Amino acid sequence: MNSAKIEALVRNIILHRRLPFAMRSVAASPEGWDIEVDASAGGILAFTVPSGRPLAIRVAIQEQLEAERE
Questions:
Q1: Separation of alpha carbons 23 and 8, rounded Å
Q2: Distance between CA 25 and CA 10 in Å, rounded?
Q3: Distance between alpha carbon 24 and the CA centroid of its chain, in Å?
Q4: Pairing state of beta strands 44-49 and 21-29?
Q5: Is residue 6 within 8 Å of 25, Cβ to Cβ?
Q6: How would you write the pLDDT of the chain (70 residues) with one tens digit per residue?
Q7: Closest residue by Cα to residue 68 from 28, 42, 39, 48
Q8: Ramachandran region, residue 23 (left: φ > 0; alpha: ψ -120 to 50; beta: rest)
Q9: What pLDDT is stored for residue 18 in this prediction?
Q10: Computed from CA positions of residues 10, 17, 63, 22, in that sequence, does the dihedral angle turn out positive or negative?
């Protein structure tokens, strides 16, 4: 996967799960993918998900975003 696909995946998760975030940036890192989103309440949420299969990446992103929503 490349950064454009990861960005599209994050946007898709935000849209379909109706999460209060907006895509900010995605960058490759030695640990996987560094992702930043803007929170609707203000501030930036930054997290890293490991590289791997697309499904595993999707699950990791969704878990991070849903954990921050609560």
A1: 9
A2: 10
A3: 9
A4: unpaired
A5: no
A6: 899 999 999 999 999 999 999 999 999 999 999 999 999 888 999 999 999 999 999 999 999 999 987 6
A7: 39
A8: beta
A9: 96
A10: positive
- Alpha-helical segments (H) within 1-70: 3-17, 54-69
Domain count, the chain: 1
Copy the structure tokens of residue 39: 């929170």
**Tell me, what's the pLDDT at 29?**
96
Angle at 35 between CA 45 and CA 3, to 5 degrees: 160
Burial (0-12, 13-18, 19+ Cβ within 10 Å), 9: buried
